[in-house]
Amino acid sequence: MKILVQGGTIVTATDKYEGDVLIDGTAIHSIGTSLSGPVDKTIDAKGKLVIPGGIDVHTHLDMPFGGTSSVDDFQTGTIAAAFGGTTTVVDFAIQEHGGTMRQAYETWMGKAEGKAAIDYGFHMILREHTPALEKEMGAMVDEGITSFKLFMAYPGVFYMDDAGIFRYMQRSGEVGSTISMHAENGIVIDVLIEQALRKGCKEPKYHALTRPPRAEAEATHRAICLAEMANVPVYIVHLSAAEALREVARARSRGIDVFAETCPQYLFLSYDNYEEPNFEGAKYVMSPPLRDKAKQKDLWHGLRQNDLQAISTDHCPFCFNDNEGKLLGKDDFSKIPNGAPGIETRMSLTYDGGVRTGNISLNRWVELTSTSPAKLFGMFPKKGTIAPGSDADIVIFDENAETTLSAASLHMNVDYTPYEGRRVRGVTETVLSRGEVIVENGSFQGRPGRGEFIRRAGRHSPTS
Ligand code: URP
Ligand code: ZN
Ligand code: ZN
């Protein structure tokens, strides 16, 4: 199948020009002006942006957590992602206590195969440290799982002590993988939670008040120091606090290889949301929590200055009006499942609130939402750019179209969006994934199960 995307404004991390993109099969064949020849389909992109498909390197689809499970599976979640202009996700497989990573890999493959509508990769969450798991990291890298997430938070659930973290970092250096870190001091946070509950502080806002910015900054600092001693890079996930960003910026200015992502929720929502009445604050319970509105400008500054290299979503949806969802914590904030939906709204939110407001340039937007995540996680140049030979993952994005974000019209399998009623300008119109039109005219044209597993390159691989 040959498709010509004609007359659009092609935008990559570095360029912006009018042109045509010829797709042959699953890949981009050529780019030029006035391309012609026999094609099976022509898409008129005049007046629209033609950008590489969004890459979301932080999602939790069908994830057991907090005694329940995130409500988007690989089918609903990836279809919603596609509607929002995302054509690749990297989700988190979870090694179970006493289990192997191979088992986790197979479990997550079982969740994704036959369901994913876009391409997907996996990071591996390690819940404990053992010499056997340390050894198994090499086998995972061979499978294309080239990043491992460790937690300094959630004692008794995911928490790992510094010795385990340090050993895994050292091993990561040997196998050429990346360590991603959930950087919050979970030990101190648990003390604060216990003290708050003892005082009868039960409402959602105490989730944020017991997870202070300094707990994130301290853990970020420690993660960086551990990585520096192990002589490996570290990637800080879902960075929310300006205080933590300062630790990243300081380390980077010393020449340390620390990378970090933030998420739209930290750029557009704030602590004030926790004060919403009638338990509505539970909608925003996630870790790390939302911070002061006044600090959002620091995150934008970090995105511009390249102290933050990616915007991902940490999509981890739980329904609000559901006894298996947010209502689990009706009488105790610490039982509210952590996480919020966002896989579908990332591109529009960051275009509207980032590019249109002048917080970031158009090229930087593409870089943060696609190119840089592809590079950091071993998928570039197959993914993350528009160039001959790259996968034809292409989004036609209408800069001038407006929409009102609402759970009723979004496609995520969850009963709310944190952005209900928010008007955004900049809307995904058409989406191609490996040369196949999967979203067009407001409808899903793809097929669940068409998504392919991405064997990502490691830092030692010749292609990375
Ligand atoms: O609240 C969050 N972030 N839930 C998802 C799990 C995680 O820590 O990323
Ligand atoms: Zn996390
Ligand atoms: Zn997460």
Give me the CATH superfamily of the largest domain. Answer: Metal-dependent hydrolases
Roughly how much helix do the residues carry, as a percent range? 25-40%
Q: What count of domains describes the coordinates?
A: 2
**So how many helices?**
12
CATH topology of the largest domain: TIM Barrel
| DSSP summary, beta strand count | 19
Overall geometric form:
globular
Bound molecules: N-(aminocarbonyl)-beta-alanine, zinc ion
Radius of gyration, rounded? 21 Å
Helix/strand/pairing category: alpha/beta
Q: Please tell me the overall pLDDT.
A: 98
- Mind summarizing the main beta sheet? 9 strands, mixed
CATH class category name of the largest domain: Alpha Beta
Which assembly state applies to the chains in this document? Answer: single chain
Low-confidence stretches: none
Q: Work out the strand percent.
A: 15-25%
**N/C terminus separation:** 29 Å
Tell me the CATH architecture of the largest domain. Alpha-Beta Barrel
